[in-house]
Amino acid sequence: MTQTYALLLRGINVGGHRKVPMPELRSVLEGLGHRHVRTYLQSGNAVFTTDSTAGEDGLTTEVEDAIESHFGFRVDCLVRDGYYLAAVADACPFPAADLDGKQLHAFYLSGPADPARFAAIDQEAFHPEAFALGDRVLYLHVPDGLGRSRLGDVVSRPSVFKGLVVTARNWNTVRKLVEMTRED
């Protein structure tokens, strides 16, 4: 059965390091047999269709290995199907339609968003900023943007996400990836 997935790469094309040009990324994905490969922005977002039965974890490993082989360095990736992306957008506990896309972020996680990881964070101390947990996602509402967010700094500490691959996208990108995965 053909399925559409989004590929989310973590920590590429930042400050001239770990360069992954999007045309080359498309070629790598096509070389794996994936079809209708499209990229969005330069920050590591791709959408593709495949008949693979490997599932999200299998596809993630396949893509990470192919990127390492092609570019010479390993990049943490998450592969999520279009249904999951739409469910994350639909389940957002914040008024996404009323917010600027840069005020809301989804931190996609490789595993469950265990509330115990975040229990020590006093959200009231960061009001009006707030976060909420969902299915392998942390939603972060930052009215003044992520660059000025004190709460964003706290929730993105390596100690909070120890053992997980995490990559964040602003809500504009979340919406665009949902749209792109519905196009096939």
Write up what this structure looks like.
The protein is α+β, with helices and mostly antiparallel strands. Helix content is 29%, strand content 24%. The strands form 2 sheets. A 4-stranded antiparallel β-sheet has the order 2-3-1-4, with helices on both faces. A 4-stranded antiparallel β-sheet has the order 6-7-5-8. Helix 3 (82-90) packs across helix 5 (171-182). The longest helix is centred in the middle third of the chain and has 17 residues, at 55-71.
Fraction of residues in H or I helices = 25-40%
SS class: alpha+beta
Shape: globular
Number of strands: 8
- What is the H/E string? EHEEHEHEEEHEH
Give the spatial strand order of the biggest sheet: 2-3-1-4
Strand share of the residues?
Answer: 15-25%
**Which residues form runs of ≥5 with pLDDT under 50?**
none
Terminal-residue CA separation: 13 Å
Largest sheet: 4 strands, antiparallel
Overall pLDDT confidence: 94
Summed up, the helix count is 5
Please compute the radius of gyration using only Cα atoms.
Answer: 16 Å
Note the main attributes of this structure.
alpha+beta; single chain; 24% strand; globular; 184 residues; 4-stranded antiparallel sheet; 5 helices
Task: Spell out the blueprint of helices and strands.
Blueprint: E1 3-9, H1 22-31, E2 35-40, E3 45-50, H2 55-71, E4 77-81, H3 82-90, E5 104-109, E6 130-134, E7 137-141, H4 150-155, E8 166-170, H5 171-182
Antiparallel strand pairs: 1-3, 1-4, 2-3, 5-7, 5-8, 6-7
